[in-house]
Amino acid sequence: MIRRVLAALAALLGGLALFVSGPHQRAMKTISPLELAEWIHDRKPGLRIIDLRTEAEFDEYHVPRAEHVSIESAHFKASETIVLVGANASTTLDEPSAYLLRGGVQGWIDDVLNPTIAADAPPDARATFKRVSEVSRYFGGIPRIVDKGQPVKANTAATVRRRGC
Amino acid sequence: MTTSLAVAIMIGIAFGWTLERAGLGSAPKLAGQFYLTDLTVFKVMFSAIVTAMLGAFWLARLGVLDLSQVYVPETYLLPQLAGGVLFGAGFVIAGLCPGTSCVAAAAGRGDGALVMLGMFGGVLATGLAFAPLRDFYESTARGSLTLPDLLHVPYGAIVCAVVAMALIAFQIAERVEKRA
Fold it and tell me: Read out DSSP for A89-150?
């Protein structure tokens, strides 16, 4: 009896899903904070960073070179590479070179301004971290080596120093 | 971090308890899957997929869950195909998969403990041999693929199709089990 009820419930929810779902929208490509940091650092031609958060949040802190405009009011050229910051799951931008920043501004603060590596990390991880550290320092971040079990404390100084840039 | 670990342990215990209650800590029961005499594994796993899929879809529709924050593992065609074949072979030989071997071991079954030992041995061997395997491990990368993106159909249509497939498959599984 219970199995029949559950099967009927699944059939009902599955059937309704067909009608409440909108047309297919291809998920936007995403970019990691470190990849974006490399692009800004390397002065990638045609790069535009669009911050979709509120004005107050933008004023509090934003990714360097970000513009605070809405998707509706912005005009994009085909040659531009667009990175959206603070977009939600339903945000779509029908441009071939449009990306969502993974983790948003918090991801940028964590991965670019406060990168950490374990003290006993293997050599290949250390080599990668060396490059990450260079990029992090370019943006005013403070890379840190943490001991096993040591709580990772956010480097608020780095975020405050870059505030409003 | 401590809270996450505590929640993970509680979910793990609940998962293990459920597997044991479903009889999935028994190797003969799991091996029955491959001889088409007992399709419990298939039914449990497909039920779990349908439950999670419907939950994720409707919670996202109701604005409770942000699907953009749900991690979709990347696809690496050849290495994952090789891993699948290796996993399947191990499953048939041992009669247990990684999760059920832990459940069997926790229930005091010797075969479960041996499978766990083999599993950790395999993990260690792979770790030690990782450098020469790395190129293959990272080959044929296809990014994060989802069925709606791959088939260019709405998410809801995939949900509906998978539920229909599950209900039909459960009916067939029941008939197969009755004949066995």
Answer: TT-----TTEEEETTHHHHHIIIIIS-EEETT--HHHHHHHHHHHHHHHHTT---EEE-TT-
Please calculate the CA angle A89-A94-A100 and round it to the nearest 5 degrees.
Answer: 40
ipTM: 0.76
In A20-39, the residues whose Cβ lies within 8 Å of chain B are 20-24, 26-27
**Closest listed residue to residue B57, CA positions, set A101, A99, A4, A10:** A10
Distance in Å, alpha carbon of B33 to nearest chain A alpha carbon: 21
Domains and CATH numbers, chain A: 26-165 (3.40.250.10)
pLDDT tens digits, residue range B79-125?
A: 999 999 999 999 999 999 999 999 999 999 999 999 999 999 999 99
Q: Does the distance separating the beta carbons of B163 and A19 come in below 8 Å? A: no
Report yes or no: A11 and B167 within 8 Å, Cβ to Cβ: yes
A14 with B157: Cβ contact below 8 A: no
Kindly determine whether residue B66 and residue A88, on different chains, have CB atoms separated by under 8 Å.
yes
Tens of pLDDT, residue by residue over A76-87, are 888 889 999 987
pTM score, two decimals? 0.61
- Residue B143 has phi, psi (to 5 degrees) of 75, -165
Q: How many CB pairs under 8 A join A and B?
A: 65
Between helix B40-61 and helix B155-179 the angle, nearest 10°, is 160
Residues β-bridged to residue A31: A101
Distance of CA B51 to the CA centre of its chain: 14
* Nearest of B59, B45, B84, B67 to residue B148 by alpha carbon: B67
Chain A residues near residue B57 by CB distance under 8 angstroms: 17
